[in-house]
Amino acid sequence: MLFSFGFPPTIRSFLKSPPCILLLLLLSCTCFTATEAYDPLDPNGNITIKWDVINWTPDGYVMSKKQLNGQAVVTMYNFQQYRHISVPGWSLGWTWAKKEIIWAMVGGQTTEQGDCSKYKGNIPHCCKKTPTVVDLLPGTPYNQQIANCCKGGVLSSWAQDQSKAVAAFQVSVGSAGTTNKTVKLPKNFTLKAPGPGYTCGPAKIVKPTQFIQPDKRRVTQALMTWNVTCTYSQFLAQRTPTCCVSLSSFYNDTVVPCPTCACGCQGNSSLSGDCVDPDSPHLESVVSNPGPGNSLTPLVRCTRHMCPIRVHWHVKLNYKEYWRVKVTVTNFNYRMNYSDWNLVIQHPNFDNLTQIFSFNYQSLTPYGSINDTAMLWGVKFYNDFLMQAGPLGNVQSELLFRKDKSIFTFDKGWAFPRRVYFNGDICVMPPPDAYPWLPNAGFRKEVSLLALLMTSLVALIFHAYA
C-alpha cells in the first residue's frame, strides 16, 4: 500500500502508477542490506556429512547379544573454500528415527549419556533420543582414535588445507535394524561450528562409498551410505557484522574510516556486545573474567565502528609498470585470538598480482575463468595467529600488482576492493562516494544514489503536472 494521503488527486494517481512504483522499489533496495545464505564467491561451499554403514550383525557387535546393532563411520567434509571451524570446534546433533542407542564411539563422544537405567551389565555410551557429538581433543590415546579425528573440532577451510578439512568418528548403533530396508535414517540434523549459522538438510541415501584397500588390489564398499548437507548463513550466525573496511591512498590525505556503527553502537550491548576503553584501569580484570557462557561474546575496544576486526587497504605507491598496496588486519577483540585466519578480497587487478609479502595467496575463481578474487592467510608459525586487541593485535602485508593499461586507473575508486571477507564473513565497506579521490579531479560530485532517485521522482511529479 502506498502512503499517498495528504497529496492532491493528480499526485495520488501518479504515486500509484507503474513508473513510480518501480522508483519506490529501487529506493527501498538502497535502504536495506540483505545477508543471504548463498555466497556468490563460494557458490558450492557447504559442509557434507557422510554416514557409511560398515557392518551389522545380530550378535550385538560384541557389546551386547540382546540388541541388533550396526557400526558406521561418520565423516565430515568442509567443502567451503575459505570458511573454517575454529576453537572450540564443531558439534553435530540429530534425532533418531526409532529407539536407537549408541553402544560405543571411537574418535568422538556425545556430550550427554542420557537415561540408560534400563540396561544392566554393558551400559551404552548414549541413550538420548537427540544426541550431540563432539570431536576428541589432540593427545587422545591411540586406541580411541580413527583417521581424521581428535582435532578438538577444528577444521581448516578447503582452500587452505584439504588434509585438515576433514573430521571423522566411528559409532556403534543399537536397535537400528540389520539391513538397508529396516534401517531408518536419522533426522533433524544440527551443526554448530561453534555457534549457530549452519542449516542442515535431510539425510539422503546415495551410492555406497567404495574403499580401496592398502595394497590397492581390492575394493570394498559400505553396506549403506547417506549424506547430509549443511550450508552457512552469516545472518543466522550473528545479528551484526563482525568486520569492517577502512581505506586510504598516497594521492589523498583523507583516511576513510569504517562506517560509524558498522558492527553496532556504543551503549547498545544487545547488538554490539560490550566495549572497553584501552586506558581503563579495570581492563585486565574485565578481560580475564568473561563470565559463564560469555567466552565467545566479543569484548571490543570502544570505537566508532565497534567491530572486532578492521581491515585497512592502503594504496601505497605508484610505479611506471606496477602499483603497490598495503593490507593491515587489526584485532579489536580482547577475548579472541584468531588462529589460521584468512582474508578474501575481490579486485579486478588480482589477475596481475606479481608478488605478495608475508601472506600466503591462492586465487579463487568463482566466476569460471575470471581471476578477480584472492584468498590470503598467514604464514605458519609466523603470522597465522592474530593476537587479541593490544599492541600485537595486527598483521600486515604488501601486494605488488602489474598494471593492465586497458583497465588500470586510480580514478573513481577503482584501486579499492569490491568485497572483503574475514574468516568467511563479509565486511562492511565504506559508501562508494566516500572513497579517496584524485586531487586533480577539479571538484567532487557529492551525488548519492538516494539523492539521484529522489531528484528523478520530483522531476516525474512536476512532469505529471505539466
TrEMBL record:
Localisation per UniProt entry: Cell membrane
Highest taxon in the source lineage: Eukaryota
Organism: Flemingia macrophylla
Signal peptide extent: 1-37
Taxonomy of the source species: Eukaryota, Viridiplantae, Streptophyta, Embryophyta, Tracheophyta
Topological category with respect to the lipid bilayer: Lipid-anchor; GPI-anchor
UniProt record similarity statement: Belongs to the COBRA family.
Residue ranges occupied by any COBRA C-terminal domain in the UniProt entry: 242-436
Cellular component, GO annotation: plasma membrane; side of membrane
Keyword Glycosyltransferase: no
Keyword line: Glycoprotein, GPI-anchor, Lipoprotein, Membrane, Signal
Protein name according to UniProt: COBRA-like protein
InterPro entries xrefs: COB_C (IPR056900), COBRA_pln (IPR006918)
Primary localisation category: membrane
